[in-house]
Amino acid sequence: MKITPTRLPDVLLIEPDVHRDDRGFFLETWHADKFAAAGLDRKFVQDNHSRSGRGTLRGLHAQLVHPQGKLVRCSLGELFDVAVDIRAGSPTFGQSVGVTLSADNFKQLWIPEGFAHGFCVTSEFAELQYKCTDVYDPTGEITVAWDDPTLAIDWPIEDPLVSPKDAVGSRLADFDTSALPQYRS
Q1: Catalytic residue among 19, 66, 130, 183
Q2: Active site includes 130?
Q3: Which residues face 86 on adjacent strands?
Q4: Contact, 148 vs 88, CB < 8 A?
Q5: What pTM, to 2 d.p., does this model score?
Q6: 60: cis peptide before it, omega within 30°?
Q7: Sign of torsion, CA 64 67 70 74?
Q8: How far out from the chain centre does Cα 167 lie?
Q9: Residues 89-140: pLDDT tens digits?
Q10: What is the CATH architecture assignment of 2-174?
Q11: Please, are residues 143 and 169 in contact by the beta-carbon 8 Å criterion?
Q12: How many CA atoms lie within 13 A of 12 on its CB side?
């Protein structure tokens, strides 16, 4: 497997070894010892799976009470996945990185605790699967506006389909930074 830091060094792009032959393919999407040897020694406690149609945009979400690190992959279709650094005091606070994940490229994205996460679907349908380092707690969730102009995310779709909750997300600048995750160097 190949692990590459993105322009946000704590967010990692993971390219697993894919073994292909005439029958299809095989790959390991998670192997605790191999990931630990590569510096990603995490305990996952929850797996999630979502399916969305073309033009759907979900996020940008983060959990403050039970912060979640997420190992994200697309198992059907194609999507554009985004991580935003919301750690107060971070040298990359408010910066984002976006990566195309697809069932064809097998890439995964590691999004650590302290980052907001969102994605949009660029194929007819897409299925996103992700492992989480903590359980979901809706009482501690925040939604950062997907279209916050200060984030300047270059989403590859126009007029996205968003949930009512995502339609009223707050600009990052409107959050009290003392309530946000704190950066630890």
Answers
A1: 130
A2: yes
A3: none
A4: no
A5: 0.95
A6: yes
A7: negative
A8: 19
A9: 999 999 999 999 999 999 999 999 999 999 999 999 999 999 999 999 999 9
A10: Sandwich (2.60)
A11: yes
A12: 18
| Cβ neighbours, 10 Å, residue 38 | 14
Spatial distance between the Cα atoms of 185 and 144, rounded to a whole number of angstroms: 24
At 56, list the tokens.
Answer: 């759907």
Compute the distance between CA of residue 151 and CA of residue 50 in angstroms, rounded to an integer.
Answer: 25
Cα-to-chain-centroid distance, residue 37: 22
Q: How far apart are CA 116 and CA 165, in angstroms?
A: 15
**Structure tokens that stand for 53 in this block:** 């149609």
Judged on CB neighbours under 10 Å (0-12, 13-18, 19+), 94 is middle
Task: Choose the catalytic residue: 19, 31, 49, 61.
Answer: 61
Report the alpha-carbon angle 137-169-50, nearest 5. Answer: 55
- 108, 14 Cβ separation under 8 angstroms: yes
Instruction: Return the bridge partners of 12, or none.
Output: 5, 110
Q: Please, are residues 74 and 121 in contact by the beta-carbon 8 Å criterion?
A: no
**Calpha distance 177→88 (Å, rounded):** 6
Domain boundaries, the chain: 2-174
Active site residue 31: no
- The arithmetic mean of pLDDT across residues 73-85, rounded, is 98
Give the count of beta carbons closer than 10 Å to the beta carbon of residue 56: 20
pLDDT in tens, 139-155: 999 999 999 999 999 99
Task: Tell me the CA distances in angstroms from 100 to 5, 30, 105, 112, one per residue in order.
Answer: 15, 19, 9, 18
